[in-house]
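INTERNAL TRANSFER SHEET
From: sequence group
To: structure group
Subject: hydroxymethylglutaryl-CoA lyase

Please process the attached sequence and return the structure record in the designated field. Keep the field labels unchanged so the import script can parse them.
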Amino acid sequence: MNTNSEVRIVEVSPRDGLQNEKTLLPPDIKVALIDRLSATGLKTIETTSFVSSRWVPQLADAAEVFNRIRKVPGVGYPVLVPNEQGYRIARTAGATEVSVFTAASEAFNRANINASIEESLQRFEPVLEEAKAEGVKVRGYVSTALGCPYQGEVPIADVVNVAKRLYDMGCYEISVADTIGVGTPAKARAMLHAVSQEIPMHALAVHFHDTYGQALANILACLEEGVRVVDSAVSGTGGCPYAKGASGNVASEDVVYMLHGLGLTTGIDLDLLVATGAWLSAQLNKPTASRVTKARITAV
Ligand code: HMG
Ligand code: MG
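Return from structure group:
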């Protein structure tokens, strides 16, 4: 049993939350979002992606946004990079933490980054080497850990293998991701348990999309299994443009409400988070997907 009562939320709304939005948001709004998030007590905010702007037009302003955000001491601002080219551009923009991403299923990886799993891992090798030499922290994502939009079922052994490869290459933390939100608690827990046989639990994170409404239940099951790092996005924004059927991430407001209710600590001011989620949904001109923000919206 993990008796550690501190949970770190990795807020992914500026990256995962926005990457699937068709209406291009101006950099001012993105900078304002990240600055607001920085004031909530969050310790990690994934700010943007240095991917091809042809693949993800919404985040073509990555360097400008990264440059302009207020960097609060003690808060990490990782950025997503798919290859060495992205890593170099991110470093020039001043990034000191990056995330690499691959998947446990071949077909999804091909659709998402036009590479096989093996090719993607090979692409990360120079990234990990340069990052090590430059003192840059690298996080690794394993997508489709509980199901693939093309392949369907994904064997747990495939998730374990890819996660271990990333960890052995030098990623300090591995986030196992239910990209299309099809997982259920017992499956999520079994997957995390299997991965934790190869990678210490303190180096694992969970990343749930909420397509089938299972995300909070999955997180609870994974907390019981011992995980203490959870990815989420305010207002329940998010989704991968190359994962058919993917919907938003689990809403940070709902995760924080649940965690505090369980007596776990996050260091996050829930009122500020709710206000930020409500503000973001207004900027996106769509209703919030956070139940907590819906419940409190009149008070914002
Ligand atoms: P490609 O077309 O196979 O690559 O794309 P390429 O090497 O042939 O390059 C094509 C063009 O892109 C070239 O430009 C390169 O310079 C440029 P051109 O010569 O044609 O003008 N390029 C870049 N430009 C900027 N930054 C770069 C970069 N790399 C190449 N880093 C590539 C391959 C990986 C680039 C492309 O497939 C890509 O960018 N994919 C990103 C897809 C993406 O961002 N998906 C969403 C994030 S993952 C996710 O959401 C899942 C996650 O949340 C966890 C979960 O929920 O599962 C993390
Ligand atoms: Mg995601």
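Handover comment: The radius of gyration is 17 Å. The beta strands are 8-11, 44-45, 79-80, 97-103, 137-143, 173-178, 204-208, 229-232.
Transfer complete.
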